[in-house]
Amino acid sequence: MLPDVFVPLVVALLGLVFGSFANVVIWRFPRSESLSHPGSRCPSCGGSISWLDNIPVVSWLALKAKCRECGAPIPVRYPAVELTSGVLWLLAWALWGLSLRTAFGIAFFYLLLILSAIDLDTYRLPNKLVAILGVIGLVGVGLSTVTPNQVAPLLQSGSALSHPVAFAGLGMLLGAGIPLAIAALYSVIRGVSGLGMGDIKLLAVMGLFLGPYVLLALMLGSVVGAVASVVIGTGSGARRKIPFGPFLATGAVITAAVGMPLWEWYSSML
Asked: How open is the CA angle 136-205-148, to the nearest 5 degrees?
């Protein structure tokens, strides 16, 4: 019989390994580079990175955050992405155990992590990655419809909208419709766009996984974003552009984890 710690340890290690691959996607995808060829290379000197120097987190610490060949600094974001991936994989396992829903939850969290990092770098949420996430959500909804297993949406409802298609469909409609209306109104009042179409597309796809609770994710993301903008400040007096995708992703993860009890508590307060 396996010790209780074995499964979560394996899940976390897999998350770290896939976190290393996430760094490859984050760097290469926006540049339209192959994700498989060539192998891992230092972006500064172009030197190949051996497997020994590519162990998640450990190699970064062993190399003291510097390239072995040229000594160029290795940004802390690399181990941060790997660690975050490991934590998110472990969170999915803690929420849903060893189940098919866990696999879809991991895919949801993992792609949100990649999209967030790319958004921080480029201020863009690539349509292809958002579409891949949407296809995964649709497959999950389909499996929930034709099998007795609840796969996607990740959250459930005891109301008349308990059918996966109805729950996910309403989530997708609310995720896209309400932000689109808000963005249009903001544009009329202020003369500038308050929310990018990439964010709206991401919210629509998030609705497949979260159902109507996608609005809670939007609210939480807005709160986290507002706090972050205050903390970051405006630098030397100039307005600093802050991408919204990472905050939407944060709101989505929180909602997937504690959205239903959080909404019940909020409703009881009202």
From this structure: 50
